[in-house]
Amino acid sequence: FHHHIHHIMTGPIPDPNAYPRRSFITRNGRNITIPVLAFPSVALAIYSSDDDQPIANEAVRHAVEDLEISYFDVAPEYGDGVAQLRLGEALKPYRKNVWLAAKTMFRTAEGSAKDLENTLKALQTDHLDLYQFHSISTEADVDTIMGEGGAMETFQRAKMDGRILAIGFSAHSEPMAIRMIESGLVDTCMFPINFGAYHYGGVGQRVLDSAIGNDVGVIALKSGARGRLTESTGEEVHVPDAFKHIPEWKRQEMIHYPVRSSSVHHTWYQPEDDPIELNRLITWSLNQHGVSAVIPPGDLNLLDGISDLLRGKADVPAFDDAQLQHMLERYEDIVPIFHNRSVSGTKTSTDRKS
Predict the structure, then answer these.
(1) How far is Cα 292 from Cα 35, in angstroms, rounded to an integer?
(2) pLDDT-derived band of residue 352, with 50, 70 and 90 as boundaries?
(3) CA 282 to each of CA 71, 119, 187, 291: distance values in angstroms, whole numbers, following the listed order
(4) Strands laid side by side in the 291-294 sheet
(5) Do residues 225 and 337 touch, judged by C-beta distance below 8 A?
(6) 8 Å CB contact between 266 and 260
(7) Closest to 338 (Cα-Cα) out of 199, 143, 162, 167
(8) Pairing relationship of beta strands 260-261 and 235-236 according to DSSP bridges
(9) What is the pLDDT of residue 266?
(10) How many other C-beta atoms are found inside a 10 Å radius of the C-beta of residue 16?
(11) How confident is the model at residue 349 (pLDDT cuts 50, 70, 90)?
(12) Which of 88, 111, 124, 168 is deepest in the core (most CB within 10 A)?
């Protein structure tokens, strides 16, 4: 009862100002801000049975009511439809107070239209605040999306009829991210802005420069990653004969660029699990000019510590340059999560240190 009274007196749940907010969608005279921390809904992908829905409900309740998180990011690829299904049910009580972003890996107008319909249904909503082309890494990805009968047609139609409110993308290749930004057709970009990938993989700054120059908001991916898993540190991931929500090109990529998974964190990379070091990585990413928000690692055991770093603050803590040398030494021997040394450096995969 007291809990209920407390909520009535304190306004909307979650509080939209619980975290520092940054300008994100600014093209065409808009100024939409978002909180600097998202909920990593990929973490719900492990709840594959319908019997697990209560666990997902509690994870989301905790994020919204206790951690005051109001920005949620999801994709059909996470658990082949599982994460978005669990999230849709769990978010029902809070949908009107949260900012919801989803993605599609389908590159054609037809494929992405079906995927969008499925996602809206799974998420039990009539609109997405942001819809993103997922995991762009090749020239062919961009050519197909932007060409006749490409997914951009679906996105633009959906934006006109209010089913999506903004258009974005995620990419793991710098040249492809820059092509998308410079198309003039996207509002936002998701890209790995990660300490190791930036300093040792050579990726990040050119995307930020292009995004700033084109008024495109950036969400930092993989900011909490140490680096790639290796063949000895990760468990093999089984690739099925077919998926329901993932296109065939991605299934082929999983075969040709095998990926390992962390048995501890259920992530495809090695997150930083020392809480002090993790907070340093997150702080570094949020201090890169042009970054609006971060998506934390998809391990909910790591979320509270990151939330505590940022929640209730007027602004993101400044990055202490005295930490730079320590961090450079800590990460010098890992394979950066993304890098520009080879084509596999733009893929979600496991590769040997070269």
Answers:
(1) 8
(2) very low
(3) 17, 29, 23, 11
(4) 39-40, 71-73, 99-104, 130-136, 167-171, 188-192, 217-221, 291-294
(5) yes
(6) no
(7) 199
(8) antiparallel
(9) 86
(10) 17
(11) low
(12) 168
Cβ(107)–Cβ(144) below 8 Å? yes
Q: What is the pLDDT of residues 129-144, one digit of tens each?
A: 999 999 999 999 999 9
Q: How confident is the model at residue 350 (pLDDT cuts 50, 70, 90)?
A: low
CA atoms within 13 A on the CB side of 55: 13
pTM of the model: 0.94
Q: Which residue type is seen at 303?
A: L
pLDDT score, position 6: 52
Give the tokens for residue 95.
């949908």
Strand partners, 25: 32, 216
pLDDT at 353: 42
Q: What is the CA radius of gyration of the chain?
A: 19
Angle at alpha carbon of residue 100, lines to 120 and 229, rounded to 5° = 100
Say how far apart CA 245 and CA 105 lie, in whole Å.
9
Please, what's the b/e burial string for 185-222 (b: 16 or more CB within 10 A of its CB; e: otherwise)? ebbbbbbbbbbbbbbbbbbbeebbebbeebebbbbbbb
The secondary structure of residue 243, as a DSSP letter, is -
pLDDT value at 354 more than 60? no
Q: Tally the residues of the chain.
A: 354
Reading the block at residue 132, the tokens are 């993103």
Q: How many CA atoms lie within 13 A of 294 on its CB side?
A: 29
